[in-house]
Amino acid sequence: MEEYDPSQIAKYLIERAKVFNKYYASVRILENQNLRYSRLALVLSVKIVLKEGLRLLEIKAPKEM
């Protein structure tokens, strides 16, 4: 019987948030016209992953930070 461990989801989300935070701190998302939409797509993707992960853990995500 396979066991499910919610802490694995929590650890994954924490790691994704750390990596994205470093990226966000070092890259100007809107500055480069050629990369703007790609970077915005990345931001949206990370938002979706974090929000859905929190939903799986039954944690409400804040609307703003």
Secondary-structure-based class equals mainly alpha
Task: Please give the largest β-sheet.
Answer: none
Strand content: under 5%
> How many distinct beta strands?
0
Spell the H/E element sequence.
Answer: HH
**Rg of Cα set:** 14 Å
- The number of helical elements comes to 2
> Unreliable runs, pLDDT <50, ≥5 residues?
none
Average pLDDT reading: 93
Termini separation comes to: 40 Å
Helical residue percent band: 55-70%
Q: Shape, please?
A: elongated
3D structure, described in words:
Residues 2-65 form the DALR anticodon binding domain. It holds the Pfam family DALR_1. One of its GO terms (biological process) is arginyl-tRNA aminoacylation. Keywords: ATP-binding, Ligase, Nucleotide-binding. One of its GO terms (molecular function) is arginine-tRNA ligase activity. The protein is mostly helical and 65 residues long. The protein has a domain at 28-57. Helices cover 65% and strands 0% of the residues. It has two helices and no strands. α1 (6-26) packs antiparallel against α2 (36-56). It is elongated, with a radius of gyration of 14 Å.
